[in-house]
Amino acid sequence: MGFRSGVTKPPSAVDGAPTPAGGQPGILDLSFRVQTQYRPFELVAPGFEQVRIQPGPARSLVRLDAGPAAPFAAVELSVAAIDGAEVVAGLFSASGDSVAAVFSPARRQVRIEVRRDGDTRVVAETAVELQTPVKAAFAVCENQVTALVDTGDGWQPVVTNRDDVAALIDLRDPATLATFSYGYGVGGTGGEARFSRVTAGPFGMAGLRDPHLVQRPDGTAYIRDGKAYLTFTCAGLGFFQQAHWGVFTLDLADPTELRQVAQLYARRDGLLLGDHAGQLVIDERGGRFIALNTSWGDFDDGGVHAMHTATSDDLLSGVHLLETKRLDLPTKLSSWDPGATQIDGRWHVSFVESPSQDPFDFHPALAAGPAGAAYDEGLELVGADPSLHQCEGPILQRVDGEWHLLASDGVAREYPVYDLTMKRLGALDAPYGTNIPHPQIVERPDGGWLMVTFEGTQYAEDVLGYGGHGDVVIMSAGPR
Questions:
Q1: Are 63 and 200 spatial neighbours (Cβ–Cβ below 8 Å)?
Q2: CA gap 241, 304 in Å, rounded
Q3: Residue 250 backbone phi and psi in degrees, to 5
Q4: Contact present, 167 and 123 (Cβ < 8 Å)
Q5: How far apart are CA 215 and CA 222, in angstroms?
Q6: Quick one: which of 415, 395, 231 has its CA closest to 316?
Q7: What is the topology classification, in CATH, of domain 14-41+206-479?
Q8: CATH number for the domain running over 49-202
């Protein structure tokens, strides 16, 4: 996928360590160590490009035919030369409305403009020295627009704005977004620019977090050709609302090989949103996917809830708008990070309960339904651990025939392990990084285990604020 990997340790074979006599090791007998760490970062998601051209010179704006399915998109420009021109990139409508980044070498300036009904407003600007050749980009994540420049050391945001953009136009509105297409070229000041490449398509990620295995109802990981499928939260250029959800494959033989295969957005309450932090369940017998995620896409400190839908669409490839509704969990508190597994004929749903989001206070919980009921029917609370206040990422996992709920405690900096009554059994033997890394473990076909998790290094926090994390961290384990 072309990620900037920054691998800290090459793949190794420690996962094949011999198993003690008497069977497989239990979950508390596993000892995890960091195997590799890398930072996924892409503006236009590889494999999802809607535009990829080598256009040459331009003297005016070029409005392209393609446009984004959701307000998570980017336009990348490789600019070979600029002759008295301002270079623009963004979204443009046939009626003349636009949301664009403007790069002006003459003014030593980069700015963000919104044009509505014939009126152009500059919503943000900054001083930047621009010399060609240069790469310049427009990115939108939800209603936050960011202008970026790459002078050879990777993409760096130079100016961003959400509130003023959103006050003028709401790109989350499906009818509004449908009027816009990608565009690039030269602004109204005249002159000429020569473009060696233009690429546009869905926004990729500034990092990945919240990994959760795609699984079958019985909890079996969905693995095809040696590759496990996982959902991740794709960190956006901004806070939680600027993130979205994606599906990826991870090569279990070489976990530096991580590739995105699907983009998932939510269409709910009349808006297109980047809800994320959840799980996909493939119900092959029922011919459907069960999708569970969290309403982070319009989070405003007023609460957040687990969402769900079921669809016959193939969510393992392509771009999808999920029509979701609130999952009826047995709690009056806010909730997130849902995951569902059918155990002994009963659906069990792990989730986070949160009595407060200002300040954040949250802990793991587990619900279960009646035998034979659907995953969203009759859920009752099995238990929770309200003694913890910064603990999330609950994951149902079977090791050596025993089911457990795993979680991540950011205060104690450990991964607590519970049984299916929510009795605490101990903690995983595994390094604990920054942020609150989720303990998603997966068994390798040839034996041993991997933990797929993340850490909290921010991307360009001085410009974008909190939310642009994190590195993917892969740990491997054999018996102690």
A1: no
A2: 12
A3: -125, 120
A4: no
A5: 5
A6: 231
A7: Tachylectin-2; Chain A (2.115.10)
A8: 2.60.120.560
Q: Which amino acid is at 414?
A: E
Domain edges within the chain: 14-41+206-479, 49-202
How far apart CA 202 and CA 430 sit, in angstroms, is 35
Do 423 and 398 contact (CB within 8 A), yes or no?
no
What is this structure's pTM? 0.94
Tokens found for residue 50: 């809607």
Strand partners, 38: 472
Which structure tokens are listed for 371?
Answer: 């035998």
Parallel, antiparallel, or unpaired for β 318-322 and 258-268?
parallel
Cα 188 to chain centroid distance, Å, stands at 36
Tokens 């206040």: give the residue: 389
Distance of CA 400 to the CA centre of its chain: 31
Question: What's the token pair of residue 165?
Answer: 């953009």
**Sheet with 109-116, edge to edge strand ranges:** 61-63, 180-186, 87-93, 98-104, 109-116, 119-127
The pair of structure tokens assigned to 164 is: 């003023």
How far apart are alpha carbons 354 and 238 in whole angstroms?
Answer: 22
Q: Which amino acid is at 332?
A: K
Q: How many CB atoms lie within 10 A of CB 431?
A: 16
Instruction: For residue 125, give every residue at least 6 positions away whose Cβ sits within 8 Å of its Cβ, in sequence order, or none.
Output: 109, 110, 111, 112, 159
DSSP state of 176: H
- Tens digits of residue pLDDT in 227-281: 999 999 999 999 999 999 999 999 999 999 999 999 999 999 999 999 999 999 9
pLDDT digits (tens, 9 = 90+) for 292-320: 999 999 998 779 999 999 999 999 999 99
Q: pLDDT tens for residues 374-406?
A: 999 999 999 999 999 999 999 999 999 999 999
**First-to-last C-alpha distance (Å) of the chain:** 34
Give the closest residue to 475 by CA, choosing from 19, 30, 26, 41.
Answer: 30
